[in-house]
Design a protein that fits this description.
Rossmann fold, globular, two-stranded antiparallel sheet, methyltransferase, alpha/beta, 18 helices, COMT_dimerisation
């Protein structure tokens, strides 16, 4: 009887349904690395272009796709199908089924709107290089050390893995700089299309400086849309602008934004502040302030964190990118809230702050002198 009494005092655990859901969820999270690595694989294999074929987007089997990406033969269609099925569950591909009732496995795949972001456009751009840039070997080596950003936030995991900061490392590796430029171009062009359709803040500007402008794609698009901008200054590190293409109306200028920034009626930059600490951001903003005339403005495009965390794609993208910044660029670099950005602007001397929520990821912010 005593043994029976002991058994009766065991505390009941969570309900079977909620326990099963929780265990499924943690298994999904633990295996989540399969998602970016499979995405990396389909970019390397050029699967999106193979399916797209000039906009046809005809559903293809894994064997059909393999024949297009490896025209000389070879490859394992079954393993490719496994990758495609998994990415289908994340909305990258659409799966088309037939004849499954007779035991055959006739699966074909087409591109969803998400998958179409990986298609190379007429200018040779897509989000594919952005995927590849994130998953280079030297970056991947930093990820097992994310906890170190909590233990010691004076040094980011990238430095602990590779011995020097990411930007310095990139500067010594031309192939990494080239991939970075292509990645930023692939992201910037669709972003700028959205901005130029919904934001008129470039009107009245004659001399525009793009800080961290990489290959100059943003300036090129701004000048095409706004002929009032007579002169564009693409300002970036010397090793970056050295490879920038010739663009009508744009001068490529190498330098260091922590020392000085070329003068202009307005200054534009995208995803600059997130990769630096508060004190570093203040220096950048102060140099922007000095380079502007009275009434001039800084047009900054930055990821702005929501006040409340939720499960939306936007919130997840912003918070995931925040951890990327913490791991690769600065342990105390971060995506900031609207209030944090406003306070940074005020600390640098800017008297006016106005956000424009046009793009889903980046927010356009005007700091006016």
């Amino acid at each position: 009887m005593e043994g029976n009494n002991q058994v009766s005092h065991v505390t009941a655990g969570p309900s079977s349904s909620s326990s099963n859901e929780a265990r499924l969820a943690i298994l999904e999270l633990a295996n989540m690395i399969s998602v970016p690595m499979s995405l990396n694989a389909v970019v390397r294999l050029n699967v999106a272009d193979a399916i797209w074929q000039g906009g046809c987007n005809t559903p293809l089997s894994a064997s059909d796709i393999l024949a297009r990406v490896l025209p000389n033969g070879g490859g394992d269609a079954e393993n490719l199908q496994r990758i495609l099925r998994m990415l289908t569950s994340y909305g990258v591909f659409e799966e088309h089924l037939s004849n499954l009732d007779d035991g055959s496995d006739d699966r074909k795949f087409s591109l969803t709107p998400i998958g179409q972001t990986l298609v190379t456009d007429q200018n040779g751009l897509s989000y594919g290089p952005y995927v590849l840039q994130h998953h280079q070997d030297v970056l991947m080596g930093a990820w097992p050390m994310v906890h170190e950003a909590v233990v010691d936030s004076t040094v980011e995991p990238f430095v602990k893995a590779n011995g020097e900061p990411a930007y310095e490392y990139y500067g010594k590796k031309p192939e990494m700089n080239g991939l970075m430029q292509k990645a930023m171009s692939g992201v910037s062009v669709p972003f700028m299309k959205a901005i130029l359709d919904g934001y008129d803040g470039f009107e009245g500007v004659e001399r525009l400086v793009d800080v961290g402008g990489s290959a100059g794609d943003c300036l090129r698009m701004i000048l095409q849309k706004h002929p009032n901008v007579r002169e564009g200054i693409n300002f970036d590190l010397p090793e970056v602008v050295a490879k920038a293409p010739t663009i009508a109306g744009v001068s490529h200028v190498g330098g260091d934004m922590f020392k000085s920034i070329p003068r202009g009626d307005a200054i534009f930059f995208k995803w600059i502040l997130s990769t630096w600490t508060d004190s570093e951001c203040k220096v950048i903003l102060e140099n922007c302030y000095k380079a502007l005339p009275e009434g001039g403005k800084l047009i900054a495009c930055e990821p702005v964190l929501p006040k409340k965390s939720d499960e939306s794609h936007r919130t997840r993208a912003l918070l995931e990118n925040d951890i990327f910044v913490m791991t690769i660029y600065r342990a105390k670099g971060k995506n900031r809230s609207e209030d944090e950005l406003r306070q940074l602007g005020l600390s640098a001397g800017f008297s006016h702050f106005k956000p424009f929520y046009i793009d889903y990821f980046y927010t356009v912010i005007e700091f006016q002198k």
